[in-house]
Design the sequence.
């Protein structure tokens, strides 16, 4: 096994992309590692023949595949390193994530919808801080070199049990009053 480094971006990124999805069979790690190492050669050959295409190569490797292909720690700014959130005891905190592509290359408006589900919003907040600000500050997610976030939102989705028996609101009035005289919580 070899260790990995994060290479710099040497050419401007283009809207064109080729996605190579690999399944690594047991014992096939060396073949996949070699293929990834040699993948730059076809890009260089195509760029030489079609220089105006401004081809670039970006390889994204999932966490489980990374551990099978490379020894040592992941680069600190790798997406799969930045987005693992652990508690003070080193236990990974639970979060479910999903992506869905939208648009077409033809209309120039395409991208990925991203959604995350977590039992605690602090997990998602910490992940976003690590991605955009860095932990430590400045160690931002490498995926941001290739993509741009345009908007976002966070929503509270209560459980059925919560809806059946919600806790009292902090500072809620007693009696029949709804206590809605002020949004700042001060009586009027």
Sequence:
């Amino acid at each position: 096994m070899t260790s990995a480094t994060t290479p710099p971006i040497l050419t401007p990124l283009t809207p064109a992309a080729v996605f190579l999805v690999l399944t690594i069979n047991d014992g096939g790690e060396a073949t996949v590692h070699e293929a990834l190492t040699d993948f730059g050669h076809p890009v260089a050959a195509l760029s030489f023949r079609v220089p105006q295409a401004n081809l670039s190569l970006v390889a994204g490797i999932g966490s489980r595949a990374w551990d099978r292909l490379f020894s040592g720690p992941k680069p600190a700014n790798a997406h799969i390193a930045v987005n693992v959130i652990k508690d003070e005891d080193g236990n990974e905190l639970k979060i479910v994530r999903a992506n869905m592509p939208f648009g077409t290359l033809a209309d120039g408006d395409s991208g990925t919808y991203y959604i995350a589900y977590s039992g605690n919003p602090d997990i998602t907040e910490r992940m976003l801080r690590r991605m955009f600000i860095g932990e430590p500050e400045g160690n931002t997610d490498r995926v941001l070199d290739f993509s741009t976030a345009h908007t976002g939102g966070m929503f509270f989705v209560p459980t059925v049990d919560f809806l059946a028996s919600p806790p009292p609101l902090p500072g809620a009035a007693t009696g029949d009053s709804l206590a809605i005289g002020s949004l700042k919580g001060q009586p009027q």
Notes: Helices lie at 29-38, 40-49, 63-69, 79-82, 121-132, 160-164. The mean pLDDT is 75. The radius of gyration is 23 Å. The CA atoms of residues 54 and 186 lie 61 Å apart.
